[in-house]
Amino acid sequence: MSAMPLWTSAAMAAAMRAQAKGALPEAVTGISIDSRTIAPGDAYFAIRGAVHDGHDFVAAALKAGAGLAVVEAAQRGRFAADAPLLVVDDVLAALVDLARAARARLDAKVIAVTGSVGKTSTKEALRRVLGAQGETHASAASFNNHWGVPLSLARCPATARFAIFEIGMNHANEIEPLVKMVRPLVAIVTTVEPVHLEFFKGIEAIADAKAEIFEGLEPGGAVVLNRDNSQFARLQRRAKKLGISRIVSFGADKKSDARLLEVSLHAACSAVHADILGHEVTYKLGMPGRHMAINSLAVLTAASLAGADLALASLSLSQIEPAAGRGVRRTLEVASGEATLIDESYNANPASMAAALSVLGAAAVGPHGRRIAVLGDMLELGPTSAALHRGLNEAIKANHIDLVYCCGPLMRNLWDALSTGKRGGYADSAANLEAQAVAAIRAGDAIMVKGSLGSKMKTIVNALEKRFPGNAALDEAAV
């Protein structure tokens, strides 16, 4: 954390072409768009969202200790004459201006991450790896959209040595304006998979949208692409067409610049042997799953391209942990023993669902334990949705999942495809499946809960944790 203030009020006003009102502090220490999480000294941006208007919470933000608030000129009359304000025409546009000013003053090695699966875990791994080697700033949570990226960039200290930004999209033409704001030295595309098909004609169109991340690459920068992915050649062609000469590949493919040589998968971690840009390394990865091992190659590649020490970076990978709702494990205290809960409730698509089922298949169970999948609808898959939900049955059989609970109208397609012996229970919603899932758990079980955010599978996770209080799960191989 930098000891310097994040912004002076004067610099903020200049960057946003804002009018200063009231007694402004000399500087602010942070930026927030949520009045509920204001820290003393923050600048509060009153963004107008789809549901709430941030101007309704300015008074609460200032009362909570915000040093100043950024508000629209049209709303100025709602606030006291002496309120500390920076007044602008449009608050979100002002935040974007501040983000551009943050990038202009930044001397850090900047990395941008996109992909259909693994953006957040890759970004968090880079935060851990690079944070051990110098001041590192990274997007909070999954702040990867039209307000999350400028917010993350505006929060970046001028003194950072490394900065990592996650960039997401649901539609074409969303990544390009964001990456042109970030201007990375290294751009990673983790993978391209059939997600958001409701808004795209096919996976090739998704690849083209992901390739927008190349548009903002700094001169002399590098793109890092998954050679194992079906869209590698398409992405590679697009990068070359844009004049990008440094295209670095990762994967198990023998032609990969960062190649997976060997991986030993354990219930809660993996042991990896890889060749990273001509240097062989062996390391323990603090998260399970072959997909995580593949993505760790991209992490080490990007870290090396950004000037970090490869040996130290590989050592740091043993310390990474899953983000909330993305594989966090808890031990549940059940009658006559313990069960393991794997919380994958944050989001889901066919690729991440298959990966999560693979992790569940490798999870340790007790003498009479079962591997139980509790699955909610995968959303935004368009006309292929029914087939993609039915197709999960192959991963369930391949990973020897013992019992499946399904909820939601789309997941009914999987339920109908399951063999009778694997059917645990079905309901039309997570709330209505909750009681069945909770009642099923017994000692020795491993339970994985996953679905798209809109499926509200966190409801079931919360119910299990409430019914069976426990603690963070540990695996002997990871300790």
How would you summarize what this structure contains?
This protein is of the alpha/beta class and 479 residues long.
Can you characterise this structure?
With 479 residues, the protein is α/β, with parallel strands linked by helices. It folds into 3 domains: 7-88, Udp-n-acetylmuramoylalanyl-d-glutamate--2,6- Diaminopimelate Ligase, Chain: A, domain 1; 106-319, 3-Layer(aba) Sandwich (UDP-N-acetylmuramoyl-L-alanine:D-glutamate ligase); 328-467, Mur ligase, C-terminal domain (Protein-Tyrosine Phosphatase, Chain A), CATH 3.90.190. Helix content is 32%, strand content 24%. Helix 12 links the parallel strand 19 and strand 20 (403-407). Helix 14 runs parallel beside helix 15 (458-467). The longest helix is centred in the middle third of the chain and has 16 residues, at 290-305. The model is unreliable at 474-479 (pLDDT under 50).
